[in-house]
Amino acid sequence: MNETLATAISDHGALALVLAIAGTTAGLVRAYVSHRTRLHEEREASTRTAARAAWLTRLAEADHDVVRIVERDRDGHREVELGSLDSARRDATREAA
Question: Which distant-in-sequence residues (6+ apart) come within 8 Å of 70 by Cβ?
Fold first, then answer.
């Protein structure tokens, strides 16, 4: 009877060891996937920022009276209007003349 009890306990111990190894492996895989996802999102945001800066530079070099930029992304909603003060001054100068 003692041999049967010892065999059952050792079987349960082996099962516990296998489950512990599987759990540790699953945790490491999850951490790796999470890390790679975060790196990919940061790289994508950096690329988007560089493209936005290049576009804004091109837009600033062009000759426009008023430029209105509306952005919606995961950070929120932004509206920027460029050149409105300069054009308002020009309009006021034209009216005065």
Answer: 77, 78, 79
